[in-house]
Amino acid sequence: MADQVTILAVDDSPDILFAISAICDLEEWKTVTTTYGEEVCALIREHRPNLILVDYHMPSVNGLEVVKNIRRIDSDTPILVLTVEESREIANRFLAAGANDFALKPIKPVDLISRIRVHLNAGNVAAFPKQEEYVKGINNQTLTIVESFLKYQDTFLTIEDISKQCGLAYQTTYRYLTHMVAQGTAEVRSEYGKQGRPKQKYRYKRH
Question: What is the residue range of 112's domain?
Answer without folding.
Answer: 6-122
